[in-house]
Amino acid sequence: MKIGQLLGVGNTASVYEWGKSKVIKIFHDYKSAMYEVTKEAKNAKIINKLNIRAPRFSKIMEYEGKTCLIYEKVEGPTMLNYIETKKYSVSYYAKLLAQIHFEIHQVKIDISSNLKTELSKNITNTEVITESERKIVLRILETLPEGKVLCHYDFHPGNIILSPNGPIIIDWLNALVGHQLADVTRTYMMINSNALPPNAPTWLIERKYRDLFGKEYLDEYFNLSGIDRITLDEWLVPIFASRISELKGKDQLEIINNLKSAIKNQ
């Protein structure tokens, strides 16, 4: 069988039609593909067993010498591309994103917390911060709660498909178990960042709409959860630090500067 129409392109992989009812996810980096595939397949098998709005994972397979993932095909646009450049649309979908996120965090999962461990590894291996900054970040991380909820950890409008059967959450590669505010903080950081995905829609490019989206998302999440939002500032420090190695150029520099400011505010 040959791959069909290109459905989406992310930072790590592209997704194509695979027959009538499935999709194939092909990773960009051949060298790291096996690690990424194994990691995501492990997460996807866990997600399959939970009551979560996610496409069913089918299997791992080889395609033209590359190790790939096969998933159930979900029809519909992403939330990212469906939002209109209007206040009511931005506000509505920001609140919906928060509601879906809160829903994920209510799922019971019998897996040990690993989010703080992963953050610690990333921060320890980040080369572009000083040793003094690293020590401060790790000390702050140590004081933060472990938590034991399912965290998507790449939760943004581009990973929500608005299907005829309701919103579906895709791309569980980075899923971890930890504190929900770590997950919320990362989402807010990505929304608030100047970094843009390829072919970003107008509402995301215009700062006033992106700021509105971030505000409405946070307000709705904290309203639903009842959690004290002051701890968001504490989580920003390790979340910024662990994000640095994922980026390059001006996008990386923005996060480094945000980290320095967040450290000063502690």
From TrEMBL:
It holds the Pfam family APH. Residues 10-195 form the Aminoglycoside phosphotransferase domain. This is Phosphotransferase. It comes from Metabacillus endolithicus.
